[in-house]
Specification:
This protein is of the alpha/beta class and about 375 residues long. The N terminus is likely disordered. This is Nucleotide-binding domain-containing protein.
Length: about 375
């Protein structure tokens, strides 16, 4: 193994992006230490990853080429993890059909059909649903072979792989309200106090929403999404996009979409939706919860009891880290207090589809770190 491949990388943050970046760096031969306030197994709205209703689906019909590749990377990665069926390797990945319902559809979408979706030829069994098969009130629908993840189990699986490759994980809360150079200096001291090597070659900033304070990125904001856990496992994954902007106004500006996905093996399903941009409150909205439960009756009727209601196990929410100016995966050189230049590879601001983008963006993180080593 080359000397370059043994250089120490410190990853800040242990959400899905921090974990995947750490794993990819270890697999590339680097030494890696993770510093994070929250770790897999934690339950906190600001630690958004466990609250994700994770499945493979593109949030928009058209994305840029790099993001497309990240989506395809995830599809292949999860396909490999689920080759032998439901969660046979403990990763929390299961194969399921994904169905999407739209309560309105413009004529161009109806005319284009499958060609309107950039990924239709890249996934298994993509098809436009016949009009006669659509539920009442639905104008357009499609389905394809996809994957659903038990998010907490998946995070624990990635963490286990990191530890198996001799990665180090330290739970610590780095200071906020300071400049980045001071925070990185504190990170080094944390390594020292834990008896670890502190000759850091580069840092990876995967702090998600925390980047707003860590690096003063005011373009970061939360997208709040409710997480309602229902008794029983839905047969598959599905979503429902409501018609008209009037619904957005009625729900306080929340994107009018609801979605259901099973947590395979746990006997529960995840109901989420009505994503609210810029809402920091961690108190669930009774209005949105009631609305989601009503809309989900079309998506998972098999979970309804004899009275036509769901049995709610728990209600929570997560704050997805979104960046108004776009995803940031790039190198920044920070001038330390001692005059030494410190390299930071940023990897944050992914917003919707964070789990899907994590695998491809981790590859880019490795490419950027390799680039630093070749300069």
């Amino acid at each position: 193994m080359s000397t370059t491949r043994q250089k120490l990388i410190v990853v800040l943050g242990a959400g899905v992006h921090g974990l995947h970046a750490a794993l990819a760096l270890l697999e590339a031969g680097y030494a890696v230490t993770i510093l994070s306030k929250h770790l897999p197994g934690d339950s906190n709205p600001n630690y958004c990853s466990p609250w994700s209703v994770t499945n493979w689906a593109s949030d928009v019909s058209v994305v840029d080429p790099e993001t497309q590749q990240w989506y395809l990377d995830a599809y292949k990665y999860w396909a490999d993890l689920s080759t032998d069926g439901d969660d046979t390797n403990g990763a929390g990945v299961s194969r399921r059909t994904y169905i999407s319902y739209c309560e309105e559809a413009n004529p161009s979408l109806l005319a284009a059909g499958a060609s309107a979706f950039w990924y239709s030829d890249a996934v298994l069994s993509f098809k436009i649903l016949p009009q006669e098969s659509l539920p009442p009130g639905v104008k357009f629908g499609y389905s394809f072979g996809s994957f659903c993840l038990n998010s907490p189990k998946y995070l624990s699986y990635i963490q286990t792989r990191i530890l198996a490759l001799s990665g180090t994980i330290i739970r610590t809360a780095l200071p906020t309200g300071q400049n980045l150079a001071s925070v990185l200096q504190t990170a080094r001291k944390t390594l020292q106090s834990n008896g670890l090597r502190d000759d850091v070659f580069a840092f990876v900033n995967a702090t998600g929403l925390g980047a707003r304070e860590l690096v003063g990125d005011e373009t970061m904001f939360p997208i709040r999404s409710h997480a309602i856990f229902l008794k029983g496992e839905a047969k598959g994954m599905s979503d429902r996009l409501e018609a008209g902007l009037s619904n957005m106004v009625a729900m306080g500006g929340a994107l009018p979409i609801s979605y259901v996905s099973p947590r395979v093996g746990e006997g529960i399903s995840f109901l989420g939706g009505y994503m609210e941009e810029g809402v920091w409150s961690t108190d669930p909205s009774p209005v949105i919860v009631e609305r989601l439960l009503d809309r989900a009756k079309l998506l998972a009727p098999e979970l309804l009891d004899a009275n036509g209601n769901f049995e709610v196990v728990s209600v929570g929410l997560g704050l997805r880290p979104h960046r108004a100016s776009g995803v940031r995966v790039e190198i920044e050189r920070v001038q330390g207090k001692d005059g030494e230049e410190v390299a930071v590879v940023h990897d944050y601001g992914h917003g919707h589809g964070g789990f899907i983008k994590a695998i491809g963006s981790a590859k880019k993180v490795v490419e950027l770190v390799d680039k630093l080593g070749n300069e």
